[in-house]
Design goal:
heterodimer, A: about 300 residues, alpha/beta, Aminopeptidase, 2 domains, seven-stranded mixed sheet, five-stranded parallel sheet, 14 strands, B: about 280 residues, mainly alpha, about 0% strand
Chain lengths: ~300, ~280
């Protein structure tokens, strides 16, 4: 775990900075400050970075980029907001094009003050970020160790926001898998999800107070239609999906028949469902890239 | 020394030596730029960290290609240090590089695509010189077997000065150092992000790093072969060549691929081929 602190690789992104903080950040690489002596490298690749260092306030155009880059950093990761603008929008806060600081888009772990932030302060901020990263690593490791302590329960309307966020994360993986962004789970708004709570039953998997998986089912005559199965990417292949399905079946006691559909490229889930006794009964083309595989399970 | 002993020594010591060399490279490069530079053990910290990171793969199979790249690089060096046939060593090395390129092609990123294409161009550039080195060594010693070449008795570099210089030129390409760091630079924020390694992270990237350590030790072992009759001088010269490669890396800017390819083939034709013609005339 110590090596984590000895080789932080940084991804530097300029959200809409005046370049003051950018120049100071790059000054850290120069012979005077030489951050490489601490093992710090300014790396251009989000997939290889540990620390996401953002300068400048966020505008409409940089919002998407920040979100994308943040998603591409592997865990454990740390976000450092450098300068007054990155912290709150700074003197540009009232501008028509500025939305605010970095924390309106992604969670920020360390704020470095200053206009422009001094190189010493930036290095301090990064070093502080290392402690946060170590803590995250500990939590992640503990979460993986305590997966059998996950609670499974009925979800109610107040959970809608968490489930909505979870579905977005899980839906992203589906969209990447199928190469199609029009996945229904991604298109749904929070209001639509909240309305679903009136006619469907929701179940959730909770670990350390956070929802890591959810599923919903709706009784239509003799059949329960199951949809919205979402498990957080960290916890996929840990048996959460199987347990959620089990909870759902328990919840609809007396019903004989369950039906659901899955994107055709999600072979892992299809295999898992087949093991749990689900059988394919039809396929339907949804978009040129997505074909729904319909599965059903009869209970005796 | 018993070939099995050499083999085991290689498998255990090569990653340590390769890692230290990489650390020394970064340190010396920093000093050349009047910086303090990271600790010598930095590459080990980097690899240990990468090993703990979340594994992100666009396509799960890309990491298998990297695993085979690592295994084949280790296999290449193992053949070499066990004293096997040089031609077999070269074919194993080429196969390893091809797996690396296939891994980069697997992820649908334009950066890793162009990186993979440039890696193929680099292979095209150095491959003839590597073959000529093996042929030159055969003409001087009448054998392709590494252990027989090492026990040949004569100083090979005296018979093969052109081939040696050509081989050193080729090392610049093989180590992906400036002016030939086309496919993937050691330093980030270049025009290809990280080139061929862009889409690799976590354990896959750690495996690539370890493969590079094995590869450097194997290539420096080949430099040693030129001075095999005096083992200590051989080790010194291998280190000198490595230092030279680092110096050139810090002095030159990157070349365009056309220039890189043309210059590599020109060097191969003049130094490598010229040397071999002289050798065949002497007989």
């Amino acid at each position: 775990m110590r090596s984590l602190k000895k080789s932080p690789w940084i991804l530097h992104y300029d959200a809409s900075s005046c370049n003051g903080c950018d120049i100071e950040t790059l000054a850290c690489l120069t012979p005077i400050f030489d951050v490489e002596r601490l093992g710090i490298i300014n790396i251009g690749d989000p997939k290889q970075a540990d620390i996401f260092l953002v300068t400048g306030a966020v505008n409409e155009q940089s919002k998407v980029v920040i979100r994308n880059l943040y998603r591409q950093l592997p865990e454990p990761k740390v976000v450092v907001a450098v300068g007054a603008c990155a912290a709150s929008g700074g003197i540009f806060r009232e501008c028509y094009n500025i939305s605010g600081g970095v924390d309106i888009v992604v969670p920020v772990d360390v704020y470095v003050p200053g206009c422009a932030a001094r190189p010493e302060a930036i290095i301090d901020g990064v070093v502080k970020g290392l402690a946060v990263m170590e803590e995250k690593q500990t939590i992640l490791a503990a979460a993986h160790g305590s997966i059998d302590k996950t609670l499974y329960a009925r979800a109610e309307k107040p959970d809608a926001a968490s489930i909505h966020a979870l579905r977005k994360v899980a839906g992203q993986m589906e969209a990447v898998l199928h190469g199609d962004d029009t996945f229904p789970i991604l298109q749904q708004s929070l209001e639509e999800l909240q309305q679903e709570f009136d006619r469907k039953f929701f179940f959730k998997a909770v670990l350390n107070g956070k929802i890591i998986g959810s599923i919903s089912g709706c009784l239509n005559g003799e059949v329960v239609h199951v949809d919205g199965l979402a498990v957080h990417p960290y916890f996929q292949n840990t048996g959460v999906a199987g347990r959620l399905l089990g909870e759902l079946e328990e919840g609809f006691r007396g019903v004989k028949r369950f039906e659901t559909f899955v994107g055709h490229k999600n072979e892992r889930l299809i295999q898992q469902l087949a093991k749990l006794g689900w059988q394919n009964f039809k396929t339907e083309v949804f978009t040129p890239k997505i074909t729904w595989i319909y599965l059903r399970k009869e209970r005796t | 020394m018993n070939p099995w002993l050499r083999l085991i020594l290689y498998l255990v010591a090569a990653p340590v030596a390769g890692g230290l060399l990489a650390g020394w490279d970064r340190r010396v490069s920093a000093r050349m730029q009047s910086r303090r530079g990271p600790p010598i053990l930095q590459p080990f910290y980097d690899v240990l960290k990468l090993w703990q990171k979340q594994n992100l793969a666009v396509c799960p199979s890309q990491n298998y290609y990297v695993l085979f790249f690592l295994l084949l690089v280790i296999f290449t060096g193992a053949l070499f240090f066990a004293g096997s046939d040089l031609l077999l060593v070269i074919f194993a090395l080429t196969t390893a590089s091809i797996f690396f390129v296939l891994g980069a092609y697997k992820a649908s990123s334009p950066f890793s695509f162009i990186g993979a294409e440039r890696e193929l161009i680099q292979m095209m550039a150095y491959e003839p010189m590597v073959l000529l080195t093996a042929i030159g060594m055969y003409m001087a010693t009448k054998t392709f077997y590494v252990h027989e070449i090492a026990g040949h008795g004569g100083m090979l570099v005296l018979a093969l000065p052109g081939v040696f210089l050509g081989f050193v030129f080729m090392l610049e390409i093989k180590f992906r150092k400036s002016p030939f760091d086309l496919s993937s630079s050691h330093h980030a924020h270049q025009e290809l992000v990280r080139g061929i390694t862009t889409e690799f992270s976590g354990r896959a990237l750690a495996m690539i790093e370890v493969a590079h350590w094995y590869e450097s030790v194997f290539l420096l072992g080949w430099v040693w072969l030129f001075f095999a009759s005096s083992p200590v001088l051989g080790v010194v010269m291998a280190l000198v060549v490595y230092g030279f490669v680092v110096l050139v890396d810090n002095v030159f800017a990157r070349l365009k691929w056309q220039t890189a390819l043309a210059s590599a083939w020109a060097v191969t034709a003049v130094l490598g081929f010229g040397n071999i013609i002289v050798l065949s005339l002497q007989r």
